[in-house]
Specification:
Elements: H1 2-23, H2 26-47, H3 53-71, H4 76-82, H5 100-108, H6 115-125, H7 131-138, H8 142-158, H9 171-190, H10 201-217, H11 222-235, H12 261-277, H13 282-295, H14 304-317, H15 321-335, H16 337-345, H17 353-365, H18 369-382, H19 386-397
Amino acid sequence: MESLERVYREEFGRVVASLTRRFGDLDVAEDAAGEALLVALERWPVDGVPANPGGWLTTTATRKAIDRLRRESHRDAKHQAAHMLHDDTPHEATGVVEDDRLRLIFTCCHPALAPEARVALTLRLLGGLTVPEIAAAFLVPETTMGQRITRAKRKIAAAHIPYRVPCAADLPARVDAVLAVLYLVFNEGYLSTSGDAPLREDLTAEAIRLARILRGLLPDATEVTGLLALMLLIDARRTARLAPGGELITLAEQDRSRWDRAAIDEGHALVRECLALDRPGRYQLLAAINAVHTDARDVRDTDWSQIAALYTQLAGIDPNPIVALNRAVAIAELDGPEVALALVDALPLDAYHAWHATRADLLRRLGRSEEARAAYDRALGLSDNAAEAAYLSRRRDQLGG
């Protein structure tokens, strides 16, 4: 049922976060949300989708959670939790902002958890991704990912990790982990690693919404502003990224009249705000690069020298091969594909599909068709996104003999 799938994606995080605040138990919250979904699967095809589906799911999940806790009331702590519905005792303070999902993000992104567990929990509990989808995103077996998520939730319970936004004094030290997770959630929505939908607007919108809340909390944190700007400038191009048949349209080939100019204007304003403070960081520089791209009304007007300079600056604070790969793309426009190919071939990215796709394009431009075809095939073998695969297949099939 398409409407139920949409509501599940949009509302799952809200339901889990609301129940976590109420009952203080991630397992109870997640299981109750899943039970509510099963009830919806039975009822909605007969009764129709309710006017407020999120509220319906939350109410149903709350009842399921209370029923579960009452069944387990032989344990004192669970017995107390079962009577929460009638308990007038004020809840423990949950932080400096009244947003259940933001509190849940800080719980999922606690430093006591491994980085991969933070992302997995956030994608599961906030984004509503299934364990198989998350496993595909991490390129690990489903059983491994399921165990990873289970261990993380157990650690949260055992270590009594609080369900709250850190106090104002602790926020800056904790925010980097949250930004990393939000960006990964955004990227999963911007170019899905699995499933039938190549783009997940619900995930990109959720990442942007939470970034806006973070910026309200930390208006002087330039990296928060930079991440919001970056996501807005990327998301502004979303409606131009897919052809009617579902094929990915690259930045160079997009109809720029379809870009969201309001989002671009907001992103540019945020980039200028960051530049005025002159405290450059990773997300600010990536936002500035995207500002240069979106400033060009035609791809031929792109200021590639500025983009290359920004990537050089980024490499100075974030020296990783993916940054070098993107810089090489800009160098190809300035100094030609042969120079860029030498830079690309030196990078240790054989397991990364975009490295092979970049090599394929450079080899194609150099007239080395057989090598280009092999590179396209390798990129296709590593890509799980149908829209991207359709684009790579077309480019490969256009090669001469």
